[in-house]
Amino acid sequence: MSYNENYEKWLNDPRLDEESKAELLAIKDDEKEKEYRFGGELEFGTAGMRGIIGCGINMMNIYTVMRATEGLSRYICSLGAEAKKRGVVISYDTRRKSRLFAEKSAGVLAKNGIKAYLFSEVHPVPMLSYAVRALKTIAGIMITASHNPKEYNGYKVYGEDGAQMSPEATALVVKEIEKIDDYLSVTGDENSPLILPVPKKVDKTYLKALSKLTLSKKAVKKCGKDLKLVYTPVHGSGYVPVTSILAKLGINVTVVEAQKNPDTEFSTVKVPNPEFKETLSMGIALANEIHADVVFGTDPDSDRLGVAIKNDEGEFIALSGNQVGILLLDYILTRLKEENALPKNAAVVKSFVTTGMAKAIADDFGVALFETPVGFKFIGEKIKEWEKSGAYTYVFGFEESCGYLRGTHARDKDAVVASMLAAEMVCYYTYIGKSVYARLMEIYEKYGYVLDKNISVQYSGLNAMKEMNAVVDALKTVKVDSFGDFTVTAVRDYSASVRKTAEGIEETLDIPKCNCVYYELEGGSFICVRPSGTEPKLKIYYSVRAENEEKANEALEKAKKSVEELLESVKK
Question: Is residue 146 flagged as an active site residue?
């Protein structure tokens, strides 16, 4: 069926709600917009769905959400009566239509005889992950588009282990979804007695689980009440849990009032992504006003934490996700070792695009380091694997995109526990007479300077994902000997699970497949190119080792120029 036929079919369907009908009438003369909305279906992958909010089969709306939930419901029904009885827990963030999508999802589940636990107010991703395990549900649904712009929303599905649903289970759900050609045929029962509120005790036990993960009680007791910490939830779901856990520990917090309340428009920021210094600008301004020590910011679903600290000149600098990650890794391992609590089989997990410095730190502490593809679900799978086998004890996992997890209470990144750990880390270094910035410089001095930089190339249109994947596929066919000053020592093709050295020696990679090309460079540097799985961006990751920051920046600029030339050549 052509996009115009799909458009006309929806527009003239009497089951379409009036708001959606008006929206479609408004674009009747816009062929490009009609093609985008109806030229292809919103893909349901291992990260669920994510798209721009609006009417159409390639958009986030009640019909695409209900269709996806119907597919999930059929999958759950195939597991038997016990699975239906265990039910599904549903959470949502502060985005446009998040509550509506959550309610519609609950209604479809209930119509299929499946119990649905629905949070009464916004709750972050880590609390949804925790609730799945606490309530022993068969699955979980999170309505969020994470850090994407305000126009987006999304739908993520979690398995019974609290991690994002496995690729195998997702494939079965997708099969069921694809059987539903008539989007508007899916109905729900939002008044069903099978829809229950999530018990209040879940919030309490979650915070209790986090408080057991503290590492520096003495330092927090002495310094916490005097610590000047500025926090912004950036209008998202982190406000209550982050301020609650910090208050529980006795850490002083000043909240950015203008960004405290939910706001579907995220009107005070360009993009609600704490990876960007601009997103923390109001927090930094307040911190300068009250002479604060540190600034925290979380994204709408509170699974990412951004941090700004003072440098030696007293100016606030926004740390990258990699810098926060190595600081937390170093702090956690240091404190566990000092307390003689570091397990002999301790293990750390990171995505393969995350800073190479993690290996140097882990090696120094005698801790095993494992790499996974991008996506915290793969870190969650490692936790599950080791809980079964006992081969390793998980102590920390992180991704360069400001995602961190200590503890196994959740199986996804958790900005609430990360806020707690980062706050007590500041207390710890204050307690021993050192700044966090000074410790970061010590880490660079000890392990060598590493500059990690991520560049995103924006794509648009209906074929954006296809075009990005085509670029990555083309890179696999080109032999590259160097990037700027760096010689390529090996290339990893993660889609084929193959690593090939410059000498032509091949080995198999024991890691889940994904479409990604990773160039190993001399001296431990790397460059990686991959299409984002959640937004139309081609992502390029640089990890450059050098004597100092100045030389690293010089080498980075040369490498970037080489990569840009390579990308231009493969596009032709």
Answer: yes
